[in-house]
Structures are given as structure tokens and as C-alpha cells.
UniProtKB/TrEMBL annotation:
The keyword Protease applies. It comes from the Bacteria. One of its GO terms (molecular function) is peptidase activity. This is Membrane associated rhomboid family serine protease. Belongs to the peptidase S54 family. Keywords: Hydrolase, Membrane, Protease, Transmembrane, Transmembrane helix.
Amino acid sequence: MNQNNDFKFSNNVIGIPLAFVFIIWFVYWVEIKFGMNFNKLGVLPRTLSGFKGIFFTHFIHSDTKHLFNNSVPLFVLLMSLMYFYRTVALKVLIYGGLLTGLLTWIIGRESYHIGASGIVYLLFSFVFFSGIIKSHYRLVAMSLITIFLYGSMIWYIFPIKEGMSWEGHLSGLLTGILFAFVYRKYGIVKEKYVFSKTEFDERFDEDGNYIEPSTEEEVEIPSIQYKYIYKIQEEE
């Protein structure tokens, strides 16, 4: 595989992040425009009626601040996902989003959990850990940039702020780690350098022991032919 082809810009790198951000802003606009409230479409843990929130929770936000705080990292991390992990990007986004919602439904408090922050933590976790696991120098560099920009988010997987779904954050983080491990052999991976053998290397076995050259090889001795000229013949 030519890994240089894996680092190719495509319309999806910008298009899908823009589309996702547009959808969550459009949903919020609909709520404001028509005086609606979609909070009850969020995840309500361990209830049958709240199970549908697994599919809708990532598109619903409580206020403009909540929406804006998710939009910027969502766009940046999703763009990173689409560029560096394009072979598995949609699987991570779709299946990872559903699994994040499911885990939130299992471990969350009895309250409606809404917002795209679960997806943000999913992307943050996947991009960071996948780069470390694969050990490709470009992906490791992206991991370091990610932790530099958004490393402080790690504190919000703990219940340190009232009214914040730390369970959704934790679910996204764990899902990202899981998917980084599952897709560790997909897409770009670090190539192992293979040394070419020389005649000197052939003198050693698999355990590194020196192999003595064989002494039983037949040595072909060239034949020498002599021609005698007698002195009597010379006088004649």
C-alpha cells in the first residue's frame, strides 16, 4: 500500500464536518424559531422511552453557549478524523456515536443527557490513542497536537461541574479507546523495516550461531600437460 495516497485531501475532509455542525445549529434554530424543546429526545438512562435518545442526543443542545463550545472542537477533530483516518472515519463517527449514546444510557444519571460532547470526546480519544497505537510519525504528531489543544477536557469525565453530563464524556472517551484498538491495523500503519541479507548474514543461523564453511567441497585441480622434446630431435 502506498501510504502517501492515504494523506490526500478530499471534499469530505471539510464537507462532513461542516454538514455535522450545520445540522446541530439548524436543530437549535428550529427550537428557537418555533418555540420547541427537544430535550426529551435526549438519552434518559435505563428507560425504554429514553432509549431513542441514543440516536438523537448528539444533535440537541440546551443553549447557545453549549452549542458553541461543542461546535469548534467538533469541527476540528472531525476534520482530523476525515483526513488522517479516512478509511474508517465514517465507521468511527456512526458506530462510535451510537455506542457512546448506549453507554450513556447504561451508566448515566436519571436525567436527560443531550449534546454533541460525547462525539467530541469520542473523536478526541480516537485521534489521540490511535496515533499512539499505530506509531506512525504523522499520526503521533497529530496526537500531540490534539492533546495540546484539548487535553484539558480530560477533567470533565469526572463529576466536577453541576449540570454537565460527565457520563456522556466518559462514554465517548472509552468508545474512542475501544475503536482505536479495534481499527489499529486499518488505514495508515507504521511500516516495519526489513533488512536485506548479505553473504555475511548467510554465515549465521537463526540463533546467531556462526556456520563453519564446508570442507567437503570438491576442489577441481587443473591438469597440467607436459610435452618433451628430445635433444636428438633438436640436432636433426
